[in-house]
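User: Structure with S-adenosylmethionine, tokens only please.
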Amino acid sequence: MDLNERAKLKGYYEKFRDKVRLLDKVLTKKKDTLNIMSVNEAFESNMKELENDPEFMSIIKGTPSPESPVPISMLDGFGRTIDYLRISVTDRCNLRCLYCMPNEGVGWIPHEDVLRFEEVLRICRILAGMGIKSVRVTGGEPLLRQGLAGFISGLKAVKGINSVGLTSNGVLLGEQLEALSKAGLDALNISVDTLDNEKFTRLTRTENMVNIISAVDQALETGFEVKVNTLMIKGVNEDEITTIAGLAKTRKIAARFIELMPLGEAASFKPFYAHEAAALIEKEYGPLLPVAAKLGNGPAEYYAINGFAGHIGFISPMSRRFCKNCNKLRLTASGFLKLCLSGEQGIDLRGLVRRGASDEEISGLIRGQIAMKPAGHSFNKSGGVENGGSVNMFRIGG
Ligand code: SAM
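Assistant:
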């Protein structure tokens, strides 16, 4: 798509966005002094005009044009294609990581406010129809949710979804691997912040440590594509980075190192940056060689090391602001579709689903939201955040 086409498209989006804002106003202020009739009339007549425009309608319906294989409905206002959904199935967790949960007063989402699996599947069908291709199930700890394997099979059956992944802390993995494999799960991300028992107990405020290396090996043997994710915290685990990277020497895994974002509790910890980790790894194992092929669906940058079976990856939200290629939406356990990890923009899909909104109404509103996806997160390098920073990751779905 050339620049002119993109500019034209952006213009259309802006027009559409204004209409959606107007409609939102009408819906939310129904009983206020607003003159609903005249707003509605203006909206109707504008919509009629636009409905007679075939190009606009192809945007609204998300019909791919012959030149562009991407459903236009999933292009945001910055030309990014949104095709990846992260689904949190619970905010409960069997660990209580210092950087992710407060010590007291967690304030769990009431059970009746957590989306039922059939509600999530309906939302996924709508989103897949619009262009979402990959999903990742997370939490809280997703393996705590009853009936997860059945839900994974449900996701695998959604037309248009071609990859289903899961992010877990690994504690319950051993007992669920087989069921997850039978359900058709494609990929597993296992969070490993430390291999040290005592540090684990301090960091997670629990004694739930399992033999995580054997969990990784079992997952590989079961046939999963495995990534090991290490959140880097200065003064806490930078001394283990080379050991964890070394897991990729004989294993076909990606060992990925993630920069801490100043969300909620995490704001009182210091990040350790990707370039610092890269220097430690290179000193120990030799040069990191960039991998040209796209691996995975997310923002990680991957490297090979001579003699390593697996890869090393870095996710650098703070030092490299990965947002320019962001392709993601997030559905929280309570059914809020978030446009960005930081900030509060998004749409309450639970409300829509439970009040009986049609698929068309829901997809139309989602489309309007996608057009408004922000350019980037609002965390800044010094650990500050402009808005939305008080919410911990377990609540959003990491
Ligand atoms: N319980 C699962 C697990 O441990 O993988 C899934 C949920 S957990 C919130 C997902 C990931 O988010 C973990 O790897 C965790 O380290 C990461 N995470 C939590 N808080 C974070 C933060 N402030 N910045 C970056 N990553 C964070």
